[in-house]
Design goal:
This is DUF3097 family protein. The protein has 287 residues and is an alpha/beta fold. It is 25% helix and 18% strand. The protein is flat, with a radius of gyration of 31 Å.
Length: 287
């Protein structure tokens, strides 16, 4: 008769007995286990929702660790690329960077079709003049890509009081057209009278109705209801800052904060958009 086999470790230091069989502690039925969250490339134009904020928009940019969405009102929001961080058609998904690398917007900030890899063209003889530094910075922010492709340089004048002599010194011609953007170009104003004094067929003076180019930025893009009215005789920028509770002692810093909120042409009023586009077309038209 065979002796019984001991399943306990021998006390004399001999070889160990067989180990008890290990069993999984997970008794969850397969149909109740959570399904893995699918990964979806954050391609431009993909519409998703961030459930924490309810913000729904199309992907316009995907960079290291973040994705930028644009809603139907043109508002932009940046979100981190977290696992299961978005909803796609009601399903939870994880957005990942496209395999081809950082996504590129199919259009420029001005709404024109983007030209990937295009080099800046040699500057034309023609120019676009604007009144001040803020005007030039805003035009560069929205139309900069287009202007480089077309080879158009934008310069600022620090006022248009001497506009007729400035145009005469430039001497515009068929191959060197001059476009000028004027603030507050309203019939009967000083600016209106100055603009009418420019008569060269190779120079085009257009303008917007706003006292300052700040007003050409849509209030909604800045989180305000409207631009305040400033009494006649007061400095407009200073009055605006005081009315809105912004630091009035440094309007330059305030402008930089405003400029950061401008992501594309959708943040600007049409009265400015049309005039800048008109100037670009005029300067780049064939001789």
């Amino acid at each position: 008769m065979r002796p019984p086999v001991s399943r306990h470790r021998p006390s004399d230091g001999g070889p160990p007995g067989p180990r008890p069989r290990a069993y999984s502690a997970d008794l969850t039925p397969p149909w109740k286990k959570p399904k893995p969250v699918p990964e979806v490339p954050a391609d431009p134009g993909l519409v998703v929702e961030e459930p924490g904020t309810g913000f729904c928009g199309a992907v316009i940019r995907c960079e290291a660790g973040t994705v930028t969405l644009e809603d139907r009102f043109g508002k932009h929001r940046v979100f981190p690329l977290e696992p299961g961080g978005f909803l796609l058609e009601g399903r939870t998904v994880t957005l990942v960077r496209p395999a081809s690398g950082p996504s590129r917007p199919s259009r420029t900030a001005s709404g024109s079709v983007a030209v990937p890899g295009a080099r800046a063209r040699v500057a034309r003889a023609g120019r676009i003049y604007v009144e001040g530094r803020h005007d030039a910075e805003l035009v560069e922010k929205v139309w900069g890509d287009d202007l480089r492709v077309e080879g158009v340089v934008v310069e600022y004048l620090e006022g248009v009081d001497d506009l007729p002599s400035i145009v005469a010194d430039f001497a515009p011609g068929p191959d060197a057209r001059l476009g000028i953007l004027v603030d507050h170009l309203v019939p009967g104003t000083k600016e209106w009278r100055i603009a009418r004094s420019v008569t060269s067929e190779h120079a085009l003076v257009v303008g917007h109705p706003y006292i300052d180019v700040w007003e050409a930025v849509k209030p909604a893009s800045l989180g305000i209801e409207a631009w305040p009215r400033v009494p006649h005789g007061q400095d407009w920028k200073t009055g605006v800052c005081r009315a809105l509770g912004w630091p009035s002692e440094n309007t330059g810093a305030v402008w930089q904060a405003i400029l950061k909120q401008v992501g594309s042409y959708k943040d600007l009023e049409p009265e400015l958009l049309g005039r800048v586009e008109e100037l670009i077309d005029f300067v780049t038209a064939p001789a």
